[in-house]
Records
---
Amino acid sequence: MSIDRIFDNMPDRIKVLPRNDRGFPIPYFAAEIDGKRDFRIVSPDKMAHAVRNDLCWVCGVRLGKYKAFVIGPMCGINRTIADPPSHRECAIFSALNCPFLSSPLAKRRASDMPEGAGDAAGFALKRNPGVTGVWLTHSYRPFRPHAGKKGILFSIGEPLEVLWFAAGRPATRDEVQRSVETGLPAIEEIGRVDGEAGVAELERRVAAFQHLLPAGSPTDL
Ligand SMILES: [Zn+2]
């Protein structure tokens, strides 16, 4: 992703963030490791501070009544996510420009990661979903997963709007559907942890999710 291109559509709140040595704005959530902010690692202190003070996860400024979550399709199905919300414009900017979110083939660089860092609570899927959603809602609720890695997850409220992106542009319905088909086996596995009730609930959620896919043509911003 060229730095010139991302500056074309950068929200003002992101323009004022500190920059890394390549000139990219450093998101609020990035932890400091050995004196350097690392985009791959979420700061647990920032997480607590953001949730307590209703701050945007990307720019660190207070949120309004709308909360935008940057999600993969599987998060949209189980309505659970590891990261707290952002402003709508900050979430869209991230979905379009974050190298991991915008490049379907990108893998999170795992070199020099502190042991266990970067893994979300509960059962995080390590795949790159290839498409990224921005889920806009009025409500969410933090909770502690009862199994898997310890930590905090967020249950996201009814969507007012869901926008989908892939490769730095709006995603097509087919792209999102393909991501769902390839990701489902992994969450079916997790659903089985809760037995038959878990599987039935998952089926209900997959059906409900169909209404949140893009229409035939790309989403309109
Ligand atoms: Zn923001």
---
Amino acid sequence: MDYVILDLEWNGVYSRRKKKNINEIIDMGAVRLNADTLKVVDRYSMLITPQIGKKLNKHVQELTHISIDELESARHTFTHALSRFNSFSDGCVILTWGTTDILTMMSNCEYFLHDNRPPFLKYYIDLQAYCQSAISMSNPGRQLGLVAVAEMLGIKYEEREMHRALADSELAAKCFKALYNAESVAEYLNSADSEFYKRMTFKNHYITDIDSEDIDKNELYDFCGKCGCKMQVKSRWQSKNRGFRARTVCPNCKVPSYTIVRFKRKFDHVEIKRFTAPVGEDTEKNSANEHSVVTDSD
Ligand SMILES: [Zn+2]
């Protein structure tokens, strides 16, 4: 299967019909890479005349250098652009830089086609996740931007041309090519099945009920930021600031402290973060003592 790297630009607008904000797609760009040579074999680029919002946000204009006149004169509806893209990407794996573009595409499909599943999406790779793992990011919690990855790889780009869908997809394609490894890519390949859409629409959330089955009470601890000793717990754990807080003291340093442990429910695991700071200091801001661990809840 060939690869299609898709990029979108959108304008945040308020939909009266849906009574909520929606990111309306105004620019779609993509490149198609041959599965074996990874050479660009085709390009797709289309500006879309907005139908929900008739004004462009200032920051969208500044970022993309697209004007509302340009969009008006394009005379392409989202439905038209989508049907052209369906033919362009037929039988290909779709790649986007992070999942936000897919979520935006889903909300536009929902709005215009009354079905949130993009018709072209059969196989998908999150290119950002792939690139981050390929360059062995030490902190997977931090998400790297496309330009940052391009710079790390020494790939040149024109600043002014960035944040246009086609230019961004071309740059993303170069990063993909530079980091390509057939076996690793296969590990990142998803079928766009029901499980995939459940994952895409899952809302991560903090668990604030200490009796929730997502909470393993053995995880309520932290270590002293100074000496590394396990903190002794001196009070009950109470729900506080999206997590649980207790008074703690280091048996070594004797410093009375607060420890906060937060449990964040993600689709297939619970992420745990711990903070400890002496009483009187702000535990929130004391990220020097932060330890992040990931555990499987099931
Ligand atoms: Zn200590």
---
Amino acid sequence: MKGIVYHGQEDFRVEDVADPKIQDEHDAVVRIEKTAICGSDLHLWHGDPLPITGFTLGHEFGGVVEEVGSAVGRFQKGDRVVVSCTAGCGQCSFCHRHLYSGCQKVAAAGAFTNVFGNPLLPGGQAEGARVPFADTNLFRVPESLGLEQALFLTDILPTGTMGAELAEVGFGDTVVVFGCGPVGTFAQRASQIRGAAMVIAVDLHEGRLERAKERGCIPLNPAKEDLRERVLELTHGEGADAAIEAIGVPSLVRDAIDVVRTGGRVSVIGVITADEVPLPIMSGLMAKNLTFRAGLVMPQNHVQSLMPLIEQGRLDPTEIITHRMPLADGVAGYEVFAAREEDVMKVVLTP
Ligand SMILES: [Zn+2]
Ligand SMILES: [Zn+2]
């Protein structure tokens, strides 16, 4: 079958890869019908070359179950599914505590090894994939929904939702969301659904800010107006109740701490690849009595509440799709996405 394979920085290729096979009784093999390129895939595109090449990329995908192992109980051949980007076993003590990202079995080789699209867990920018522990990591797509409507349950919709959850966004809150990309969009939507009175959307891209305004957010371009002053002006001089960093830029973590009020909550869900980021502990976290949280998405915890919102039309995740291409043109999809050409937000590939 075909897949998009990592060969190094800016060197991804569509080529023949091994067909996925059942290797364990808990596995399923999924024939992929839709797969997306994620902002976090761009870290590999731009980033330092990895020592290992030749693995299939991609962690946002769905399709039809083709085969299941003998221990899979909840799914069978023919089921339409989307796949959690972070795989858990559902059995270890962390999975039992709903901390699937730290699964002691699937992530035993180290952090992130249970995110699809690495040498140990080949990804879903391909015609098919093996999904370990299918009962934990597959989500059934209701008949009323198209696969595209459910596709972002694999990662970015739960990620944005988790941003609002970690920042404890509630009824009547004022929330600052850093980023109007796919994750930022969903953090804004989740904040609105959780009852935020005002969502201030921060971005440098005017086109993205315009779309945020259409979603009912207040756009704020920090290149054009002073971020902190504008937030204070909008919050009667107090600062926001909560802030969500949804891009992954170290300096924005400090900005997020800066714009919340005393007793505010800050969450970081943008992927920050720098391991150490300076934080204002005394003047920020302590002096303002802040709650500061960060985390890696675990779609298993959010799909059950998000699916009905999509079914009821209160959320339309397809709003972020700007480009649709065949998988065969996937490298061109990466190039468009990486260059931020054509106002690109999300590229969806069809194998
Ligand atoms: Zn992703
Ligand atoms: Zn586990």
